[in-house]
Amino acid sequence: MEYGFVLPKLTDGESLSKFAKAVEEFGFHSIWAADHIVQPVEETNLYPYTDDGRFTASAEDPQLDAFTLLSFVASQTSRIKLGTSVVILPYRNPVVQAKMFSSLDVLTNGRVICGVGVGWWKEEFEALDAPFINRGLATDEYLQIFRILWNSRISEFKGETYQFSGIAFFPKPVQKPDGIPIWVGGHTRRAVRRTVKYGDVWHPTRLSPTQIESMLPYIKDQCEKFDRNINEISISLKRTLHFTDIGIETNSKLRSQAALIDSTPVITEDIKRCEQLGISQLTFDFQTSELDECIRIMEHLADI
Is pTM, for the whole model, over 0.90? Predict the structure, then answer.
């Protein structure tokens, strides 16, 4: 089992550096940056991962740009993988995004993971003049564009949401043979289909192991439908992690679904269950934003 951690919502470079170096020194797999550019001030009831649809972050929580944040973290580390969990593809021009991912991959000698999602917050789409209604189609086409630009000498694409022809795109990503690995976020069957058609890893968030298990037959079915070897598709599950028996208090913050907030024995059994289901990677974020507490949680996981 491999483990990754979402960077906490800190804006102090020294603290972020300390966190990133700790993740690498503990021997974990990856560091992840979330992607929100703005947050509407009116409370939503459409967030997919809480029981009442409220978002778990407040409007004034600091949200650093994911690409800038990963570039900074890359300069503070040397081995660990660096990923977006997840970048909302329809927010940005696809050619520009492909260049940003490729540039970071070149400069880090192949440490980048392209985690993607379609997004859900309509008001954020509107603020960015991004296509909300056709966001699923745009995401599918942008993923095709990434593969073309990362692998073709002369590139062209004609889709419903974007098109170009006769362009050269260099440098290509360092990672071979197909460029940067694509991890597809989302908990729905549409996300699984997108993974099988365009990606390498299904990267759902806020699901329980039981919910993952219920989706396994559909993954197999889609692999057969699109002629993909099921062994080429991995699963990474992202949830909140908090040990209740190491002296760090839980708080009253709104909890997302399937949060792993429990004692060490219970969490250990949950992780074993994930491994039995064939989940190969777990990504965790934190209930706390305190740097020392985040590091203590990671250290405890490394020790069990």
Answer: yes
Q: CA-CA distance, 32 to 48, in Å (whole number)? A: 20
CA separation, residue 281 to residues 1, 31, 205 (Å): 6, 12, 12
User: What is the count of structural domains for the chain?
Assistant: 1
For 56-74, how does the pLDDT look when each residue is reduced to its tens digit (9 = 90+)? 877 778 889 999 999 999 9
Nearest partner of 186 among 55, 89, 112, judged by Cα: 89
Tens of pLDDT, residue by residue over 143-184, are: 999 999 999 998 899 999 999 999 999 999 999 888 899 999
Q: At what angle do helices 66-76 and 13-25 cross, to 10 degrees?
A: 60
Q: What is the CATH number of the domain that holds 155?
A: 3.20.20.30
In terms of residue numbers, what domain contains 223? 2-303
Single-letter code of the amino acid located at 98: A
Q: Running DSSP on this structure, what letter comes out for residue 205? A: B
Structure tokens at 194: 């997108």
**Residues 28, 35: Cα–Cα separation, whole Å:** 22
| Backbone region of residue 175 per phi and psi (left: phi > 0; alpha: psi in -120 to 50; beta: other values) | beta
Percentages (nearest 5) of helix, strand, coil residues in the chain = 40, 20, 40
